[in-house]
Amino acid sequence: MNRTEKDSMINELVGELSEANVFYLTDSSAMTAEQTSKLRRAMFTSGIRMRVVKNTLLRKALERVEGKDYSELYPTLVGQTALLFAQKGNAPAKVISDFRRKSPKPVLKSAWIDEAIFVGDDQLAILTALKGKEELIGDIIALLQSPLKNVISALQGGGGHKIAGLVKSLEERAAKA
């Protein structure tokens, strides 16, 4: 690979990294061609782009991305590196976890998820349990609706007698005043 090809590859990676909110770095070395093919297929069906990259080119690309500090990821750029781009933060972790039921690889090196950095294969369980944006919004809406539902059910619980009693006591207070 000559200098212009390397620069072109680095610029392409800079573009992809600057647009990505989620990416994982994994080690898929020592996997057979069949296992690698199955992993790529699993990633593709989950909407994850997988790309094997040279560590030196990836590091240079990470250094050139403006406005983001990837320095904590640099120590993980050793050995073979597969770069996984995804829309959902937990999607690659779920695919890796499922795949590792049959094979010891791929191993998670590190992950970048919306400015948060996760380093090490021991973080895989945490990443698998991460909730996506849609799930978090759903949880927040459910929490906001909960008190309102409790008030309505409490008022309706007495068959309307509680409301009538409340109105009657307010009338009596108003009459005494």
What does the model show?
This protein has 177 residues and is an alpha+beta fold. It folds into 2 domains: 3-130, Alpha-Beta Plaits, CATH 3.30.70.1730; 134-176. The protein is 54% helix and 15% strand. It has 7 helices and 5 strands; from the N terminus they run αβαβαβαββααα. It has helices at 3-19, 33-45, 55-64, 91-99, 124-129, 133-157, 161-176; strands spanning 22-27, 49-53, 81-85, 107-113, 116-119. The protein has a 5-stranded antiparallel beta sheet. A hairpin with a 2-residue loop joins strand 4 (107-113) and strand 5 (116-119). The radius of gyration is 26 Å and the shape is elongated. The N and C termini lie far apart (92 Å). 21% of the residues are buried. The mean pLDDT is 87.
Shape: elongated
Radius of gyration: 26 Å
Number of helices: 7
Under the CATH scheme, the architecture of the largest domain is 2-Layer Sandwich
Distance between the termini: 92 Å
- Rounded mean pLDDT score: 87
CATH names the topology of the largest domain as Alpha-Beta Plaits
CATH class of the largest domain: Alpha Beta
Number of E-state strands: 5
- What percent of residues adopt helix (DSSP H or I)? 40-55%
Helix/strand order: HEHEHEHEEHHH
**Main sheet strand line-up:** 2-3-1-4-5
Query: CATH H level of the largest domain: which superfamily?
Result: Ribosomal protein L10, N-terminal RNA-binding domain
SS strand fraction: 15-25%
Structural class: alpha+beta
Give the count of structural domains: 2
* Largest sheet composition: 5 strands, antiparallel
Low-confidence stretches: none
